[in-house]
Specification:
Elements lengths: L18 E5 L4 H12 L5 E4 L2 H8 L6 E3 L5 H7 L3 E6 L4 H15 L2 E4 L4 H8 L2 H7 L2 E3 L7 H13 L3 E10 L5 H9 L5 E5 L2 E5 L5 E5 L4 E6 L4 H9 L3 E7 L2 H17 L2 H12 L7 H6 L1 E10 L4 E9 L1 H17 L6 E2 L2 H5 L11 E4 L1
Parallel strand pairs: 1-2, 1-4, 2-3, 4-5, 5-6, 6-15, 7-12
Antiparallel strand pairs: 7-13, 8-9, 10-11, 11-12, 13-14, 14-16
């Protein structure tokens, strides 16, 4: 575990539990996080924009609730009053992370979110010195993006300390929530991304493919601009990073076609139509679908001599895992485990943090 640096977070009154603020509690993932909080004996203060929805959510559990819009700094400061840490669940984080991080730095409250967006990770990484000066931890990606893959990357680095290249891949899950689908729609038509020589560079959609053995069978995978293209570099120092996901041949063809349709997909009109269609979908996979599903991750590192090390990680469905890892992270911070500055999950809580989630297991090949 990293050494804990002193924090300037306001002290919790004697005898009181540290206040965990759950912002975006009425959304699909926010409600899953709330359920996990309550199952773990944590009673968060819930917050968001909609007073009626918050009141309805809080009433059965007699929870405190606070209304604040992210574009109202005064209301947001009031919502953070007395909090030690915020779990920020209201996306798309490309728009929502900055105002919440600003408020956390102003009020000396530790920041957690569940983003998977490379731009958000990089923007918060650039605020490392500012966060250290404020005694605040900025830790984006405490959900499926990117806790399991980040810990897998760090585990592989532990196995091969001289590694200079990293490839990660995953498949599985019960489907997408409306929030996740909306984020994807807003990024439709954009390029892919990989790291080369420590720098993030754009690449065409579906830039590379690879057939990967996940243990059950070999699967076709394709590069995607997943959050680990950003975070794994900070966690491991490995300069060359690619992330893949399993995909059918038909979906791969569609993704390659998007290279030519990019200008159309990036228009406000098309993105509006995509988002409108998403809003007609169910909020996200139900409990039965999540229980039947699981996530499978794979990683490979190589050193300059060509030595190759491979590991796999089995985990619950991504939304179930997100709720559990977000609450584990918030509880660790509330217990004094924050490390000020920009952090990744494995740097903040250790390489084996993911193994605290039931059902998560390594397999080293």
């Amino acid at each position: 575990m990293p050494r804990r640096a002193p924090s300037r977070i306001r002290a919790t009154p004697a005898g009181a539990d540290p206040v965990i603020l759950l912002y975006g509690a009425t959304g699909y993932t926010g409600q899953l996080v709330l359920e996990e909080c309550l199952a773990s004996g944590v009673r968060p203060v819930i917050a968001g924009r909609n007073a009626e929805a918050l009141q309805a959510l809080a009433a059965p559990h007699a929870l405190e609730w606070r209304v604040a819009s992210l574009d109202d700094a005064t209301a947001l400061d009031a919502a953070l009053a007395g909090a030690v840490v915020v779990i920020h669940c209201a996306g798309p984080f490309s728009r929502t992370s900055r105002p919440m991080a600003d408020a956390c730095l102003r009020n000396h409250v530790h920041y957690l979110d569940i983003t998977g967006e490379i731009g958000v990770f990089e923007a918060l990484a650039r605020r490392d010195a500012e966060a250290k000066a404020a005694g605040v931890m900025l830790l984006p990606g405490v959900g499926f993006d990117v806790v399991p893959s980040d810990c897998l990357a760090a585990h592989l680095k532990r196995r091969l300390p001289a590694a200079i290249s990293l490839q990660l891949a995953f498949y599985g899950g019960a489907g997408l929530s409306r929030g996740t689908a909306t984020t994807m729609a807003e990024n439709a038509g954009g390029p892919g991304a990989v790291r080369r020589g420590g720098r993030i560079i754009p690449v065409p959609p579906a830039w590379r493919t690879r057939v990967i053995d996940f243990g059950d069978r070999q699967r076709l995978t394709v590069t995607i601009p997943w959050g680990d293209v950003s975070t794994a570099f900070y966690s491991t120092g490995i300069p060359d990073i690619e992330v893949y996901t399993a995909m059918s041949a038909g979906t791969l063809r569609s993704l390659r076609l998007s290279r030519y349709l990019g200008p159309l997909l990036r228009t406000k009109w098309m993105r509006g139509r995509l988002v409108a269609a998403i809003k007609r979908r169910p909020p996200g996979p139900d409990a039965q679908a999540r229980a039947r599903s699981s996530a499978h991750l794979w990683g490979e590192v190589r050193d300059a001599a060509g030595t190759c090390v491979v590991s796999r990680l089995e985990a619950p469905d991504g939304y179930t895992l997100t709720a559990k890892t977000a609450v584990l992270a918030a509880r660790a911070v509330a217990d004094g485990g924050a490390v000020p500055g920009f952090q990744t999950p494995s740097r903040a809580f250790g390489v084996d943090f993911i193994l605290q989630v039931p059902g998560c297991t390594w397999m080293d090949l």
